[in-house]
Design goal:
- This protein is an alpha+beta fold.
- The longest helix is centred in the last third of the chain and has 28 residues, at 862-889.
Length: 1206
């Protein structure tokens, strides 16, 4: 008694002596069957004892077996029959004794009977939905028994196993091909068949031939191909695990079944979409090889859709094999303490030996009906060939591959072209593909057509791999992903022209190859110029912009004019679209243009050879755009972030071309007007908010105003305008200030400049002021130092800290106060003429000749007077002798005013007062703008906090060296030094600084030598970069993990990896939560020596596009350092904004200055304001109470009144 189809197939011959009651009337059979099955179902313990001979058991089974051919209306009897057989199969104590004696025979008979259930019950049975549902349910119960038998397979002998497999094989064939079964069971039947086949561990070639013969016949059915794919993929993953270790594949045969659902597979075991089988290792290899051929050659499949599905499954298999070891779960394996090794990928030749015949036969087919399958085959071949490692590839396979690629790129069907482009966008990056450059003209032709705006197919493909590559709207242009692949391909060729053409010229080979590379240069330039005009997808356009930057870097030494041309192209985009409402392009595109323009300022000296006034041209246009954007913002038609970034790009070009810009009156006028628009944007914009729509930055993008954290969009614009103005005033003509660019601001502090033993907040020699809530000014008196008396002035604003020494000068430079000489000793007079006798009066002969002599009459006592005269004269003479020294020393000259000691009183800030007064800051009209600050320890802490906020953006970038064979982070961190190419690359990133003496950003490195003596460092006027290089740090012999190195590199948001490994770098090699971006460089050898392949890997796919270097580019070593550094900084900026929300440093400084003003600034009455200038620090502080303290005092005095009112 057996399903007739199985008998017809010849798998199992039916016994004509059986099936006795088959032809009985239905009602008779119904009574007999229902009675028997009910009896054994309900009373099996006693009923089985009545069956004492084999004949008894066979007779009962004859009746029970007929139940499976009954109409489904008798589903209760069928269900009970299943129950009886289930007990007899799996419960030893429930079996009749004769059955136990000949178990294998009776098991075979039971499964023969089960086969009857799967036959369709008449033509009209499907119309009865409930009956069909019951039929499906009953069939699933039986299928479950098949699965259980597979689990308990140790009770079966080989013949019984083969018998059961033939039964399920025949049932499946009847359903799929004979159309006698229930079609809803297709997927479930195939699952049970394949799973049971694997559980049988059969190596019987006859049985496998049966399966493969029927598999080929069933291959017209979608269910067959889908379940075959599932089994093959599951076996492949297990094979990979066995061959390559625990880091790859699966530890069991894990099969993910297709097409199962609760409606058609209500049984939980049959409907379970996942099966895990622990099969013997050797059998896994055997079964994998056998199952691959179950459907035969997939190219013989007639149905195009089935042909496609077959190749999709094969593509998954070959991809798994080709990419062994590319992304091992290192962290998980280490957490589980599993000993593992990361394997090398298998040789491409091995994969092609197995699957190559199928693939190459498919790609060379002429019939367009199979193009979707061809496309998958092309994609699979590209993935096998386009990978790093795996050893050299046979030239025969390379030749077949190149021929197929050329043929495919010229195919009229875009589906094929798309598959090739998506699968081989890094084809020119792999040295394993010898001679691949012969494909360059063919790829360039296709990329030129697509990026130039070519349209795609006129029908929508159904291939799931490529149908999404073509849009369904309008003219059905190639979709964004395809155009992106073209951008990647063209970008990877940028450095080829100069590298290979120059190399051949040096070797004297001016042949057609050299001409080809020279022609390539102009082709690339033409493609990018077209793409800048035609590309509408924002991300693709951003990538094109960055690719243009790389192109300019590469070509600048050969043709400086190329930079000018493309800068004007970019400025045309800005001028034509950024000055209008954001409709054609979102803000991110223009922000990328501004970032690109900023990155090109490092090439300014080369570009001015072609256009001396380039900086003036760029700045003029940016200054013109800003007022237009401000007007649009008032109407919510642009974003605040866009205006902000325009200002920053403007500043970059101001800094590099200040001399040609600022000597032009019109340019200065434009710049100042733009700044004024930014500073006063709040006027008339009270209701204005930043636009957020489908065309603008998303919240997750770092190009939104979130980078300005803590301030509004309008404040961010104002701050950016302030930034430009401050840098114009502070840095133009003054940068760099030191030879190593480490310090652009002063390192002096109030502590170092204050001369007494007190802290600055308590010293009478230090005063603190704030001007317009913008600039903090500290004045430190210098009474005896600095060639004093004078003042050291320390100013802080958003751009940094600046220190000045000042003295009052009156002509010649005065000597220090303490060294002034004593002035004015009178030496011009003498007393010599007052000593001795007075000379006799001179006789005048003329007068005397006319005189009349008269005698003088003698008087009484005259002699007495004469004596008195003599006595008086003698006394006076004696007095003069006594006082002669006094008169000689007597100084009667007119002396100059003597200098006063300025620090004799309580106030020690007289020179500070003089300085402020002469600067006009003590004008009575400025008392509300130039305000003293309360001097205390909290103020000093706030000042130190501001000083701790770097005025420039600071970035920490890790640089890791990977040798051949190094896969573990422990291996990477013990490296000391590196290859010559690696050392050259380090020197191109920045200049080495002595960590002990370095004044700039340290990036967490120590000055004591524990993290090395030197480190690469880079700085410009707005950015500082410190590179963490483990090879430059000393090893700790007591720590194999070198934690002191990992704590730096592991916490860096961006790591640059220099890999000399033969396979690609694993992003999880260094286990860290903070390595968001990996920029991996692979130095190329052989004919490509001097070039480096670059992979850019991001942890989060939501990252916006950043550059200049894009994933898949190939760079020449002469430009790699600068471009990689810029890319790392841009990646670090994005990662920091996304992960921590850290803002630009000058915005942080502004917020801190405003916070300090709020806490320590106050308004003083005029008399107190000026009185504080003459008082000691202590008395001055009593007058200058901060607002917070005054508010508390006011609340304290008002609280009793308030309470009383209540």
């Amino acid at each position: 008694m057996l399903l007739g189809w199985i008998d017809e197939l010849g798998l199992i011959k039916s016994d004509p002596r059986k099936n006795i009651i088959k032809n009985f009337p239905l009602e008779v059979k119904r009574v007999v069957i229902s009675s028997i099955v009910e009896y054994f179902n309900n009373q099996n313990d006693s009923a089985k004892n009545n069956l004492t001979t084999t004949a008894h058991v066979e007779w009962v089974m004859e009746v029970i077996g007929q139940a499976f051919s009954m109409p489904i209306v008798d589903h209760v009897s069928i269900d009970r029959a299943i129950n009886v057989y289930t007990k007899w199969l799996f419960e030893v104590d429930q079996r009749p004794f004769p059955m136990q004696e000949n178990l294998q025979y009776f098991i075979q008979q039971i499964f023969n009977h089960f086969s009857l259930l799967f036959e369709e019950r008449g033509e009209n049975s499907s119309s009865n939905v409930e009956e069909r549902k019951q039929h499906i349910y009953l069939c699933n119960r039986v299928l479950d028994i098949f699965l259980q038998m597979g689990v308990k397979g140790d009770m079966l002998e080989e013949d019984t196993w083969n018998h059961i497999l033939k039964v399920i094989l025949g049932v499946t064939d009847s359903t799929l091909r004979g159309k006698r079964g229930i079609q809803e069971l297709n997927y479930g039947l195939l699952k049970v068949l394949f799973e049971l086949w694997l559980c049988s561990l059969s190596d019987d070639k006859v049985m496998w031939n049966h399966l493969q013969e029927h598999g080929i016949l069933w291959s017209k059915n979608n269910a067959t191909i889908n379940q075959w794919n599932s089994v093959c993929i599951g076996l492949t993953n297990r094979v990979i695990n066995l061959l390559y270790g625990p880091s790859e594949g699966t530890s069991v045969v894990r099969i993910q079944w297709e097409g199962l659902n609760p409606k058609n597979n209500p049984n939980p075991n049959v409907g379970n979409p996942t099966t895990e089988l622990d099969l013997p290792d050797e059998y896994v290899y055997y079964a994998w090889n056998q199952f691959l051929h179950v459907i035969g050659n997939p190219n013989k499949l007639v149905d195009p859709e089935i042909h496609l599905k077959a190749f999709q499954g094969i593509e998954v298999i070959t991809h798994s094999l080709a990419y062994v070891g590319t992304d091992p779960p290192i962290k998980k394996l280490k957490e589980q303490k599993i000993d593992f090794r990361i394997p090398y990928a298998p040789n491409a030749n091995s994969i092609l030996d197995i699957f190559g015949p199928w693939y190459f036969e498919s790609v060379f087919r002429d019939s367009p009906y199979y193009n979707q399958g061809r496309a998958v085959a092309f994609s699979a071949l590209c993935k096998i060939f386009c990978r790093k490692g795996g050893g050299p590839i046979s030239k025969q396979y390379l030749s077949l591959f190149y021929k197929s690629i050329i043929q495919g790129l010229g195919d009229d069907d875009p589906i094929v072209v798309i598959a090739i482009l998506l699968g081989s966008k890094k084809i020119f990056s792999y040295e394993e593909l010898e001679g691949s450059h012969i494909l360059i003209p063919h790829y360039m032709k296709v990329c030129d057509r697509i990026l130039g705006g070519a349209t795609g197919p006129t029908t929508t493909p159904t291939n799931s791999t490529t149908k999404e590559a073509i849009s369904n709207s309008g003219s059905q242009k190639y979709n964004n992903e395809v155009r992106n692949a073209c951008i990647t391909i063209v970008s990877s060729l940028i450095c080829f022209s100069n590298h290979f053409a120059t190399q051949r010229e040096l070797e004297g080979e001016l042949n057609s190859q050299a001409c080809l590379y020279k022609e390539l240069k102009f082709q690339i330039q033409g493609v990018f110029q077209k793409a800048l005009k035609s590309e509408k997808n924002p991300k693709n356009l951003q990538q094109i912009i960055w690719a243009v930057v790389v192109l300019i870097f590469e070509e600048i030494d050969y043709n400086p004019e190329i930079g000018v041309i493309f800068i004007r192209n970019l400025m045309d985009l800005v001028k034509n679209f950024a000055s209008r409402p954001l409709k054609e392009y979102p803000a991110e595109v223009f922000i990328t243009i501004y970032e690109a323009l900023s990155s090109l300022t490092s090439l300014y000296n080369q570009m001015i050879e072609a256009e001396p006034l380039l900086a003036r041209e760029v700045v003029y246009q940016l200054s013109t755009i800003i007022p237009l954007q401000v007007a649009l913002l008032k109407q919510n038609q642009t974003t605040a972030k866009l205006i902000e970034e325009t200002f920053y790009s403007l500043c970059d070009w101001l800094m590099c071309g200040s001399y040609v810009i600022l000597n032009n009156k019109e340019s200065i006028t434009k710049i100042v007007f733009a700044i004024d628009q930014g500073l006063n944007i709040t006027k008339g914009a009270s209701s204005m908010t930043a636009i957020t729509n489908n065309n603008t930055s998303s919240p997750s993008s770092p190009t939104t105003s979130s980078q300005s954290g803590g301030i509004s969009d309008l404040e961010a614009i104002k701050t950016s305008a302030e930034f430009v103005l401050s840098h114009m005033m502070n840095h133009i003509s003054h940068f760099p200030t030191t030879s190593d660019n480490a310090a652009i601001v002063s390192t002096l502090t109030e502590d170092t400049e204050c001369l007494d033993d007190l802290e600055p907040e308590n010293s009478n020699y230090v005063r603190f002021y704030i001007y317009d809530n913008h600039a903090l000014i500290s004045l430190v008196e210098q009474p005896n130092e600095k060639s004093g008396p004078g003042v050291t002035m320390i100013c802080r604003d958003v751009t940094g800290k600046y220190s000045w020494d000042s003295r009052a000068l009156y002509g010649e430079i005065p000597q220090p106060y303490t060294q002034l000489e004593e002035r004015g000793i009178y030496t011009g007079s003498t007393s010599d003429g007052l000593l001795g006798h007075t000379p006799e009066p001179e006789q005048n002969e003329v007068l005397m000749q006319h005189s009349i002599k008269r005698d003088i009459k003698s008087r009484d006592g005259i002699d007495l007077f004469m004596d008195m005269i003599d006595i008086q004269e003698e006394a006076e003479y004696a007095f003069i002798e006594e006082t002669q020294e006094f008169y000689e020393d007597l100084d009667v000259s007119c002396n100059e005013p003597s200098m006063r000691y300025k620090y004799g009183g309580d106030c020690k800030a007289s020179m500070s007062r003089l300085l402020l007064s002469t600067m006009g800051l003590l004008n009575i009209g400025l008392t509300n703008r130039f305000v003293p600050l309360q001097s205390n320890a909290k103020l000093l802490r706030s000042l130190r906090n501001i000083d701790g906020t770097q005025p420039r953006e600071t970035h920490k970038i890790g640089v890791v060296y990977v040798k051949e064979g190094q896969d573990d982070q422990q291996d990477l961190f013990v490296n000391q030094g590196g290859s010559e190419e690696y050392s050259k690359f380090l020197r191109s990133l920045g200049w080495d600084v002595s960590l002990e003496q370095h004044l700039g950003f340290m990036g967490g490195l120590d000055k004591n030598g524990s993290t090395g003596v030197q480190a690469p460092y880079f700085a410009d006027y707005k950015t500082e970069v410190m590179f963490h290089v483990p090879t430059m740090m000393p090893n700790n012999p007591k720590d194999p993990q070198q934690i002191h190195k990992k704590r730096h590199v592991g916490n860096d948001h961006v790591n640059i990896i220099w890999s000399e490994h033969t396979r690609d770098y694993y992003r999880n090699t260094i286990i860290s939560q903070f390595n968001f971006v990996h920029i991996v460089l692979y130095p190329l050898v052989k004919s490509m020596h001097g070039l480096l392949r670059v992979d850019v890997m991001v942890k989060d796919r939501s990252y916006p596009v950043f550059g200049p270097v894009l994933d898949g580019m190939i760079l020449s070593e002469k430009i790699v350092g600068s471009l990689i550094r810029q890319t790392a900084v841009n990646g670090s900026r994005i990662s920091r904004a996304k992960s921590t929300g850290i803002t630009r440093p000058y915005i942080q400084r502004k917020l801190l200055i405003q916070e300090l003003a709020t806490r320590y600034k106050t308004s003083l009455e005029t008399d107190k304001y000026f009185a504080s200038l003459f008082l000691s620090k202590e008395h001055s502080n009593l007058m200058i109470e901060p607002p917070s303290k005054k508010l508390k005092t006011k609340e304290a005095t008002s609280s009793p009144t308030t309470t009383q009112k209540k």
